[in-house]
Amino acid sequence: MKKPKKKSFKIAVTKNGPYIVTGGLPLAKEIIVTDRDGNPLKYAKGDKYPSQKSYALCRCGRSENMPYCDSAHGKIRFDGKETAGRKKYSEQAMKIPGPELILNDARELCATARFCHRAGGTWRLVRNSDDPKSKQIATEEACNCPGGRLTVCDKKTGMPIEPPFKPSISLVEDPEKKVSGPVWAKGGIPVESSDGTLYETRNRVALCRCGKSRNKPFCDGSHIRARFNDGDKSLRR
pTM, whole model, 2 decimals? Predict the structure, then answer.
């Protein structure tokens, strides 16, 4: 009996154009939910998009058919030049040890989702990770970081603590800031540069969809400064 073929997932960055997504990856909205103090707490499920074997996601932020590309990038002469470095995450990240956890922090990958702000901040919580509650919250915060700027490892085993994502794509919405956030690629989806080479494949990656990032193709939080809004209803409250 033949083994079933593994599905081949990929996000290809095109030169000054959209992201081409192949492999039938599910696409849906995820909405940042905040606590009473306005600090991000968790994600809520949003609208799901129809299943497709392949599709093109807008990268310039100007499509009138969001989240899909409508060729607006050509009309506005979008400069989508990729400026991100090619260092591996382990080469970028600073290690911050705590009694129970080790925090890895690669600042260049910050997507300004702000999950790291709650309860005194992830850095403080890791330093107090011998307290079970602090350890739990620090782990939750790191795992909710869409770009994977922050990751945590168990100090005793050295093993990373990562959410068990299935390959899928989420479009992050941020009602607290009234903006639309990054394309959140989850579950180890390869991202191919427009020059045909692969970026490091990671469990979670945040890709720019406002067109303003200075770390393309990755999100750097510029959607907040640009007040980028793709028309999501959750931002109208």
Answer: 0.94
